[in-house]
Amino acid sequence: MLITLIVMPAAAALLLSFASKTEERVLYWLIIAASLVPFLMVMQAWPNFLSPGAAEPMVSLSETRDWIPAIGAAFSLGLDGL
Questions:
Q1: Is 66 helix (H, G, I), strand (E, B) or coil?
Q2: How far apart, in whole angstroms, are the C-alpha atoms of residue 3 and residue 8?
Q3: Residue 54 lies inside a defined structural domain of this protein
């Protein structure tokens, strides 16, 4: 999910940069949709950050993917609430 939250807005911005500027109304709604989807994903993840103790260290959301398996390299991403 974290990788999607990073890639989706960047991909949408890239695709929308090639969109026709003559159809402003359509472009407006595409921009709204491209912004709303990641926002809804964040709202879905929000309850994971509600912890009983504010001082306890935690990583609420994390994702790890193999990057270059031949050398044991991995891509790891974590969100700790800061």
A1: strand
A2: 8
A3: no
Calculated CA dihedral for residues 59, 6, 67, 82, nearest 10 degrees:
-20
Number of domains forming the structure of the chain: 1
Q: How remote is the C-alpha of 37 from its chain's centroid?
A: 9
For the whole model, what pTM was predicted?
A: 0.65
What pLDDT is recorded for position 52? 59
- Pull the structure tokens for residue 62: 């994390």
**For tokens 């402003």, what's the residue?**
24
| Highest mean pLDDT: which range of 13-22, 51-60, 64-73 | 64-73
CA–CA dist 70, 18 (Å, integer):
37
Q: Residue 33 belongs to what domain range?
A: 2-48+59-79
**How deeply is 60 buried, as exposed, middle or buried, from its count of CB atoms within 10 A (0-12, 13-18, 19+)?**
middle
